[in-house]
Amino acid sequence: MALDKRIGFLGSGQMAEALARGLMAKGIIGGDRMYCSDPNPLRRELFRGWGSTPFESNLDVVRNSDVLFIAVKPQHVFQLLTEVRPVLHERHTIVSIAAGVTVDKLVDAAGPHARVVRVMPNTPCLVGETAAAMCLGGKADASDEQLVRQLFEAVGKIYTVDEKLLAAVTGLSGSGPAYVFMMVEALADGGVKAGLPREIAQALAAQTVLGSAKMVLETGKHPGALKDMVTSPGGTTIAGVHELEKAGVRAAFMSAVVAATNRANELSSM
User: What sequence ranges are listed for the domain Pyrroline-5-carboxylate reductase dimerisation (predicted)?
Assistant: First the structure.
């Protein structure tokens, strides 16, 4: 269903591009109702290529938009919001995808009457499969939550959590694609070592991860139960699982999520 809103991107990097492309692909909004700014003229021209209107001034983006995506680097968020604060209006829903920038910091910069939603997406947004979470701040209410949900469900899934849990979201789904890419690479390397051509090994590894993830989501079964369905007594899979257990793979993934979560908490407190 098309959205009767105008979308402004303050910052037009990779994540903003992924969101814009996803929204257009799902028919949520056309490029002619998108506005953007970015210090890099090449990024502005990229957005112009699908009908968006780029501005050199952040203020012009705000004046022409109803929903504002704050998509600049975290260290620039406060300065950006302070700059546009004079033209912010009660109609604006401010959606920050800047990692580590708390709701309190966003409201301090945008003003106490700002409707702020903090979102932690991840890069599979680029292929319409983001895993995101959000929390509300300032004057944001249920209508803002529903609006943001509609926007992000065009490019994947989004959940509402308490802000204190966003660091864990960062450690799991925010950083998680890197862990999965490493796993796909390692599985493909194993296939190559076993004699498969590289191209086939990589395709099999990626499709295996995709299919396995779909089974978790669509069957609703516990991953352990799905694993047991594959591991026949004395078979090939249990031999491989034994090697993974000896290498501490499960503990390594858990430690990676916790380490990334701790780092996210450190960045939020800076």
Answer: 163-267
Domain with CATH 3.40.50.720 in the chain: 7-164
Q: Is residue 122 a known part of a binding site?
A: no
pLDDT by residue for the chain (270 residues), tens only, comes to 678 899 999 999 988 998 898 889 888 999 999 999 999 999 999 999 999 999 999 999 999 999 999 999 999 999 999 999 999 999 999 999 998 899 999 999 999 999 999 999 998 988 889 999 999 999 999 999 999 999 999 889 999 999 999 999 999 999 999 999 999 999 999 999 999 999 999 999 999 999 999 999 999 999 999 999 999 999 999 999 999 999 999 999 999 999 999 999 988 887
Does the annotation place 216 within a ligand binding site?
Answer: no
**May I ask the CATH architecture of the domain 7-164?**
3-Layer(aba) Sandwich (3.40)
* Count of CB atoms situated within 10 Å of the CB of 71: 26
Instruction: Report how far residue 77's alpha carbon sits from residue 270's, in angstroms, rounded to the nearest whole number.
Output: 14
58 in a labelled binding site = yes
Question: Would the annotation count 74 as a binding residue?
Answer: yes
176-268: in CATH 3.40.50.1980: no
Do the annotations mark residue 225 as ligand-binding?
no
197 is in an annotated binding site: no
**Intervals of CATH 1.10.3730.10 along the chain:** 176-268
* Cβ-based burial of 183 (10 A; exposed 0-12, middle 13-18, buried ≥19): middle
Burial 207-220 (b: 16+ CB within 10 A, else e): eeeeeeeeeeeeee
Q: Any binding-site annotation on 150?
A: no
